[in-house]
Design goal:
The protein is α+β, with helices and mostly antiparallel strands. It has helices at 12-17, 23-37, 120-136, 142-150; strands at residues 43-46, 49-52, 55-58, 64-67, 70-74, 79-83, 86-87, 90-91, 104-106, 109-112. The protein starts with 11 loop residues before the first helix and ends with a helix.
């Protein structure tokens, strides 16, 4: 069982169009904010949500896979923004708790009911920092890993 709602959307634009109002407007504005803030991260659909960029992960157990650097999902009771970056053993999103008092923040997930509940400028800083931390950490893009394996 997945924690993400399933979707039949094939493109980010289709995903946004499929959302009910007022969430559609909020998701569209967040999508635009993410695209403006980190234009180098390609948008795509990933397991029932919007993903931006991708990286390949590998655990010590040998389990590996691909995941989005930034994720955006419409959940039943809230909007979830995922910033998949940590530095110094601390998730980047957790550093922004005080600046996003109406959001629930746990590890890499920022949850809020409406875009009006959070400061978009703070979200933009968080998204930018998360992408920079992943780049600095040398996160390999999922595409680069697949390309290297094909050779």
């Amino acid at each position: 069982m997945t924690m993400f709602k399933t979707t039949t959307a094939k493109t980010p634009a289709e995903y946004i169009r499929m959302q009910p109002e007022p969430r559609r407007t909020d998701i569209a504005k967040l999508h635009a904010l993410i695209r403006k803030t980190v234009p180098h991260l390609k948008p795509h659909i990933q397991i029932g949500m919007l993903g931006y960029g991708s990286y390949h992960y590998r655990y010590a157990s040998g389990r590996e896979g691909d995941w989005a650097i930034i994720g955006l999902a419409n959940q039943k009771n809230y909007i979830s923004l995922y910033v998949m970056a940590a530095e110094g053993g601390r998730y980047i999103a957790e550093k922004y708790k005080k600046e996003l008092p109406k959001a629930s923040i746990g590890k890499s997930c920022i949850r809020f009911r409406r875009l009006l509940d959070v400061d978009a400028a703070v979200l933009a800083r968080l998204i930018k920092e998360g992408a920079q931390v992943m780049q600095k950490a040398g996160a390999q893009s999922a595409e680069a890993v697949r390309s290297a394996r094909a050779k």
